[in-house]
Design brief:
binds pyridoxal-5'-phosphate, 12 helices, Aspartate Aminotransferase, domain 2, globular, about 425 residues, Aspartate Aminotransferase, domain 1, alpha/beta
């Protein structure tokens, strides 16, 4: 009863009730004073590393060499080792990772790139920024990721941005086989999948390259930032040039006062460099991510067992071959929405019961107002082709996820067993009250 008597001297209308929803004035399942884990978190080494940068007068890769190692190069080395690739090129945003990743493939202007409809808009806008036309595909009904079954070989795509969505990896085994057969170059968008694994192989190592975001909400965060990983030496050099105005890392140590980059200039680049502050923070975050992942995975298992017993709602489940989960956002799926409700309403109801935000997944790109290339005159020929190619296309699975899913942020899963029980209690109450 949480110490609140249901026998009250207040007028009946104002009496909080355990059975009515918190959104309607009932008593929330979770006491408002009980805190949730916050995000982002500052790992133990962050302050020291950031002060090292601040006082070391080396705030960027493109400044003169000082006497200590650049955090940017240290992060590149450590992240490549963590993912399991030969190379990592850090960048300023996950979007930039996708732009230079696509640019590095040497495609022609106007070539088509497959992009799943269920993703953040950057997966598609990056293609446009690289001079390519994104062609949206529907997603797998179970994982919410691109599936070989939905790939329309008739559009003659030259590449695919394969997104690992929320907490599920796409079936990279099937997709890379499809790529081998069709010549479609696979780029993994791992912005939501740091450390995920399928058949024991890490996200980012399946495709020609893997692109990561380290934006604030991501499981590895520096506020803004990103990285591209690859095993391909030639591609790695091109990626370095594409993100640093045609310059790549020098191969010798260099002397104090010299530059860390040399003008190799085999391909024209832009400035997408990650700042030293971001890189320092990422080095500190890498020291704690494994432990945080372990907590989230433990809590996912607890929650999966709890939710299994609640009719009308289920937890998003990965492909059976997924061996490591990386939970960015955790979807709760209502196959049939309770009568008269909608996902936005359910998100508000759960938020009120639990005192932390439940929200909608990103609107599928086939209806998202964020993907409107015709609003930029310089994109006109690509935008015209984009509009033409999507005429009459349908995305029933992506629409389903958009309509029937409520998500919680991964930080919720950094909580305790009791926090997971609260989520279960809230779901039970909501389902029972609304059914
Ligand atoms: C799937 C996906 N791709 C790309 C991005 C873009 O990353 P950034 O915001 O770091 O540019 C995001 C960010 O949310 C994302 O979720």
């Amino acid at each position: 009863m949480r110490g609140i008597s249901r026998v009250s001297t207040l007028p009946a209308m104002a009496t909080p009730s355990l059975v009515s929803l918190a959104i309607d004035g009932g008593i929330p399942v979770r006491s408002p004073g009980k805190p949730w884990p916050q995000w982002p978190q500052s790992p133990p080494a962050a302050e020291r590393y950031l002060l090292d940068v601040l006082h070391g007068r080396r705030w960027t890769l493109t400044g003169p060499i000082r006497d200590s190692e650049l955090f940017e190069r240290r992060f590149a080395r450590e992240f490549a080792a963590w993912v399991g690739t030969r190379h990592c090129v850090p960048v300023d945003h996950g979007s930039s990772a996708l732009v230079i990743g696509l640019e590095s493939l040497g495609l022609d202007y106007g070539d088509r790139v497959l992009v799943p409809a269920l993703t953040w808009t950057a997966s598609a806008t990056a293609a446009l920024r690289a001079g390519l036309v994104p062609v949206l595909t529907d997603v797998d009904a179970v994982t919410g990721c691109m599936s070989p079954d939905d790939v329309d070989l008739g559009v003659d795509a030259k590449a695919a941005v394969v997104v690992h969505w929320s907490c599920c990896m796409a079936d990279m085994e099937a997709l890379t086989a499809l790529g081998d057969r069709s010549g479609i170059l696979m780029v993994e968008d791992c912005a939501q999948a740091h450390g995920a694994g399928l058949y024991g192989r890490t996200a980012g190592t399946w495709g020609r390259l893997g692109c990561f975001s380290t934006q604030q909400g991501k499981v590895l965060s520096s506020g803004e930032g990103g990285a591209v990983v690859t095993d391909d030496d030639a591609l790695a050099l091109r990626l370095e040039e594409l993100r640093a105005d045609s310059r790549s890392y020098r191969t010798d140590r260099g002397r104090c006062g010299e530059l860390e980059t040399v003008e190799t200039a085999s391909i024209m680049g832009s400035n997408f460099c990650l700042s030293e502050f971001g890189a320092a923070l990422l080095c500190a975050q890498l020291e704690v991510i494994d432990e945080q992942h372990a907590t989230r995975r433990r809590n996912y298992d607890l929650l999966a067992a709890i939710v299994e017993g609640i009719p009308g709602v289920r937890l998003h489940r990965p492909h059976p071959g997924q061996t490591q989960m990386s939970i960015y956002e955790l979807p709760f799926i209502f196959d049939e929405l309770p009568t008269g409700t909608s996902a936005p309403y359910l998100a508000r109801v759960l938020s009120a019961e639990l005192g932390t935000e439940f929200y909608l997944t990103d609107e599928p790109l086939n209806t998202s107002r964020l993907l409107r290339p015709w609003t930029k005159p310089t994109l006109r020929p690509l935008a015209d082709e984009f509009v033409r190619l999507h005429d009459g296309r349908e995305f029933p699975h992506a629409d389903f996820f958009g309509r029937n899913t409520v998500v919680t942020h991964h930080s919720t899963l950094l909580g305790t067993e009791s926090d997971m029980e609260d989520i279960g209690a809230a779901l039970r109450k909501v389902v029972r009250t609304l059914s």
